[in-house]
Specification:
The chain is mostly beta strands. The chain contains 1 helix and 11 strands, in the order ββββββαβββββ.
Length: about 190
């Protein structure tokens, strides 16, 4: 499932010099997905509720990213499909209300995060996933006058690796492209 939304573009760049803590802005952090349907088209959807934190330390080469998604907040624009996705054949939100990514490591290039490797938990199954971080930029928020950073994070997973096998191989694809449009305020 692909989290592919337009990249966050911010105008002024503020350098990240030491470890900094960020709280993700739920109104601007939008996980989305893309998956093949009947082998002929791409079905897209997104999650409207998420939360998270990031600790960035480019000087020390470390940090941590945590994102938790409310699986029941999935929307595709088709009510019947949204209900099916929340049900037992897909996200099974009654038993597994959250999807969670926690990074083990962050790789930096030129002082900016470019990759976060970690663990994705979906349907109670945890597997390693590496997020490619694109378009990382920072600025000062125009109203709050505090640092704000944003990026797009991308990965491709196989849903069958997490036990989500309904409709394989022909009705619904196995490969899911993920993207998380993210913005966070420095604490």
């Amino acid at each position: 499932m692909r989290f592919a939304l337009p990249a966050v573009t911010l105008t002024a760049v503020l350098p990240v010099l030491a470890q900094e803590n960020y709280s993700l802005d739920p109104s601007h952090t939008i996980p989305s997905f893309e998956i093949r349907h009947h082998g002929v088209s791409l079905q897209r959807g997104l999650f409207t509720r998420s939360q998270g934190k990031a600790v960035l330390d480019p000087a020390g080469g470390g940090g941590r990213i945590e994102v938790t998604i409310d699986a029941a907040s999935v929307i595709t624009g088709v009510d019947a499909l949204d209900r099916m996705l929340r049900g037992p054949t897909f996200f099974n939100t009654a038993l597994h209300p959250r999807i969670r990514f926690v990074s083990d490591s962050i790789r930096y290039a030129d002082g900016k995060p470019v990759e976060a490797s970690g663990q994705l938990t979906l349907l109670g199954v945890t597997r390693p996933v590496t997020l490619e971080i694109r378009d990382f930029n920072c600025t000062s928020h125009f109203l709050r006058r505090i640092p704000l950073c944003g990026a797009d994070a991308h990965a491709t997973i196989r849903r069958s690796d997490f036990g989500m096998t309904f409709g394989l191989p022909n009705l619904v694809g196995d490969e899911v492209k993920l993207a998380i449009q993210v913005e966070g305020f420095r604490e």
